[in-house]
Design a protein that fits this description.
One of its GO terms (molecular function) is G protein-coupled receptor activity. By secondary structure, this protein is mostly helical. The C terminus is likely disordered.
Amino acid sequence: MDGTNGSDLPPVKEETFCKYVLYYEMNNSRVRIWDLIILIPNALFVLFLVLRFNKAQLKLRATSSPIFLTFYTLVWGNVIISLIRCAVSMTVNAAMPVGGLIDKILWVTVRFFLLATEMSVVIFGLAFGHMDSRSSIRYVLLATSLISLAFTVTQGTLEIIMPNDMFHIDTRDYDLFGHGGMLFWFTSSLVFAVIYFIILLLPWIPLREYLALPTKLSFYLYVLLLALLDATQAVGAGLLTWGDAPSGLCVVDVTTWLYFSLYTPLVYHTFLSEFFSVSQPSIMFSYKAQMDEPMDDDQVSLPHQQSFSSLKTDSDYIYQQSNSVYDSTLFEVGGTTPMNPVYSASLQSPDSIASGQSIDIGLPTPGYQTQNVLST
């Protein structure tokens, strides 16, 4: 075999649990336990998204901020490609050259989507929190996609040309996916960990004066979790390459499962769950058109919005707005997310229609509301 593990350590024995779980097939079928334990949490998360799809659609239609749709699309893309990888891996024979190649390409493809999302979140938070317009979102996604593509092409090339000895299965004569080799995995994980720890230090260094740093604690908890995950991955890859290989493989297995199974739900929980919740959310992002971007009809800011009538039925809670401007954002303080006037009237619930109640979308009317609008 032409591969190398980057050290003189002998490969981990195939009967070792942390290696056995990677290739063991249930009842001599092509369904590997490793694929199954990654498939289950992703499938459950898809079910969760499907059950909440109607409410999410209403929320997305009711806001003119494009950032929510962007993240929602990334979440769906990540989980769907993960399901496809698991399903295909369960149907192809990895012991055959073509089957093994397809399996590795799918692993790298999933990594591409996850890494692009990972970088996009950080860039939106640190550089584009004050101008999350459609054009800036396109630029960010293009940049992160190119960087992620370069990373995954390098990883895939190393994985195919120089397969890692530690992930070779002698009894079946094929190679498991080895993340591009442990030296590559160690280096990349260490670099990402350092970047995330630097981000955590930004609020306490003089550079903060020149950056529009996020203000919500949830963003920094998200960064901390990824920093710890990458640091642990680096430790596992280092042990697998230069130290206790069996222990290192177990660490790599755990961190790999966490990343490929729970990262997408983490993004949803941190950046979208509050917005999509039935109870009134605080808006995490605000939309501001670029100087070169014309304002569409659905991007105009309405006057100060009065609160909805007091509604008591459960179906009405999703339609309620705050009686003050949305001013709690994840990436900036004081940002506002205007309600899309095209959809405002359509969001009136059936219960409120039946009771004769109407939705106030904040348009000035004679009397008190006109005075309130002028005062704001």
